[in-house]
Write a structure and sequence with these properties.
By secondary structure, this protein is of the alpha+beta class. The chain folds into two domains: 42 residues; 153 residues, Immunoglobulin-like (Sandwich), CATH 2.60.40. 26% of the residues lie in helices and 32% in strands. The protein contains three helices and nine strands. The protein has a five-stranded antiparallel sheet. A four-stranded antiparallel sheet has the order 1-2-5-9, with no helix packed on it. The longest helix is centred in the N-terminal third of the chain and has 40 residues.
Length: 206
């Protein structure tokens, strides 16, 4: 093979190497941009959380269910008229809206918390930055659900908080602080009828 031919081969190999290097650089840049956009999208949502604190007896709690006395008739007397204490943390710089908080049960059998019906719930219009507390009414059944679900090590009451961030994206945080983006607002995603919404005003803790 002549020197000219060898030179052509070398040029061709060098060209392939250049194209490969450029392609790799573009692929890495695209991946970095995608990851940056993902972090930006989740920036505020990752700073919103909620957790279960305990139960308390609501004033006139048992009388509060006269509209449907059968709702808590299946509960043991000590759990009727009970409400859950839930703490909320908005550690971002902006408020979130359409905040739906509900209690559920998580165990080794119940993992898909986003598929569960939000039976014990409360709605908050706006959650400003800071640490807050609310009372979720009619929550005694959540404790019973846990007791029926297995041992305390394998089944526990959990709080799911869903909200719309300042950019209009919808989120929910559930078991193990898992953050999940929702395709629609919470009341639409979980098919909560607006006439059944129990609006609550959170109290500031910090």
């Amino acid at each position: 093979m002549s020197a000219v031919q060898w030179g052509s081969v070398a040029t061709w190999v060098a060209g392939v190497g250049t194209v490969s290097a450029v392609s790799l650089a573009l692929w890495e840049a695209r991946g970095e941009r995608k990851e940056r956009l993902r972090r930006e999208l989740r920036h505020q949502a990752e700073r919103i959380s909620a957790w279960f604190v305990g139960m308390h007896k609501e004033p006139h709690g048992e009388d509060a269910h006269e509209e449907d006395p059968r709702r808590e008739a299946w509960l043991p007397p000590e759990l009727r008229g009970r409400a859950a204490d839930v703490e909320l943390l908005n550690n971002s710089e902006d408020q979130v809206t359409e905040v739906l908080v509900f209690l559920s049960r998580v165990s080794y059998k119940v993992q898909r918390w986003w598929d569960q019906e939000p039976e014990y719930r409360a709605m908050i219009g706006v959650l400003a930055p800071g640490r807050w507390t609310i009372s979720v009414p009619k929550s005694g059944g959540a404790v019973v659900d846990v007791k029926l679900g297995g041992s305390p090590a394998l089944s526990r009451v959990m709080v799911i908080i869903s909200f719309t961030d300042s950019a209009g994206n919808h989120w929910a945080r559930g078991a193990r602080s898992e953050l999940r983006q929702l395709p629609t607002a919470a009341i639409e995603y979980w098919k909560v009828h607006k006439e059944d919404i129990d609006w609550r005003m959170p109290m500031r803790l910090d």
